[in-house]
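Last lecture ended with a question: if I hand you only a sequence, what can you say about the shape of the protein? Today we answer it with a concrete record. The protein is Histidinol dehydrogenase. Below, first the input exactly as provided, then the predicted structure, then a couple of comments.
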Amino acid sequence: MPCKRCFCSRKSHILAQSAYCIRSHILIPSLSITVGDALWVGDSEVARYLKTGITEDATAEADTQVRATVEVIIADIKARGDDAMRDWSAKFDNWNPADFRLSDADIESAYAELAPQVIEDIRFAQAQVRNFAQIQRDALKDVEVETLPGVVLGHRNIPVNSVGCYVPGGKYPLVASAHMSVVTAKVAGVKRIVSVAPPYQGKPNPAIVVAMHMAGADEIYCVGGVQAVAAMALGTETIASVDMIVGPGNAYVAEAKRQLFGKIGIDLLAGPTETLVIADDTVDGELCAADLLGQAEHGPNSPAVLLTNSETLARETMAEIERQLTILSTAPIAAKAWADYGQVIVADSYEEMVEIADQIASEHVQVMTRDPDYFLEHMTNYGALFLGERTNVSYGDKVIGTNHTLPTRGNARFTGGLWVGKFIKTCTYQRVLTDAASAMVGEYCSRLCAIEGFAGHKEQADIRVRRYAKEEAV
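The predicted structure:
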């Protein structure tokens, strides 16, 4: 039964009853999927929806508008530099300071605003991130080996020279994003780390400023949005350009990174937060609902999906979500996300759940089953796994030590999240130590160049064969 939308006929491709693909890259179903529709692998029914979200077509117009707006802002920053950055900051954030860069006095003032416990909590979280990042850094080894007599090949792991770290802070002051980006870049050995965050309630958020400073940022600016990303990428009179930009943000920030990629490197394109809860009857609806709503509160377009082999748990969770929404302080946002982007999928087995989860390729995957390690062993597409009911996505978001900047929109099919290795360039080198080695490699190279018709390449090899072997290459 091939898919009518993309005409895929692979047996592993998950299909809806109507024979349209599940559009896993944006974590919402296709137009014709409704409650009760079945999911198929090949000709076999594997699961069904008890709740669906809005259609992918409903997001297309919004994406087009975001793209156009970002193009205008980037062009303006490129043309007018600081003046444009100031104008856009005033328009979007009502923020027009004398200097966007925070002084030492500004940073000291931020420390003074925080309770000692807040500073200690930030210090603890950063220690966990730093410790795991250092373990990862230590796993990256330089290599040098003699692969043939007289031929030495190697690689070095070289940090990027300068990085811009974007820390979201308009809706919520995402202090943890400073740990995840600045601390990790520092462990990698980046020489210049620029960190930016938008104003929060009319001023720099003191907790974000302190987190940036404690993490090791060399320059701290209070500016956000597309204008901040463009300024770091293109450079202005105030902010010198960087080589790479990392960190999460809203749809506009993600689109700015996409458009500027190539001018600068990026970590990944982080869209709206996504969570997938995989659960069976060993847990209850209260826990599942809390884990779904805990991520849905990120924004009204944050997908939250329950995948279970227990219809009883599925229905219990849906009822529990409605109850928790009556008491959750962020309910206006979480309720919108659940209504528009929430899904409940019932499967029959762990195997089917793995198939569906790998198609979804969610940013966060919370596994609460009898055997959570089954999913660790068999799943291949996810940003981060949270195994067992004792942990949860919030731990990863804030404090446990793994990085929270993760792939969304199905990008987990081909990339992992931000980690110390993202700031490292693995660069190769070679040496040829003897005349005999150069002549031997040159003879092979000459013939291979001739096959491809590259005369100049061939002569590079031939001249060395003539010099070091004292004979003409064929």
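Comments.
1. The longest strand covers residues 151-159.
2. Confidence is low (pLDDT under 50) at residues 1-34.
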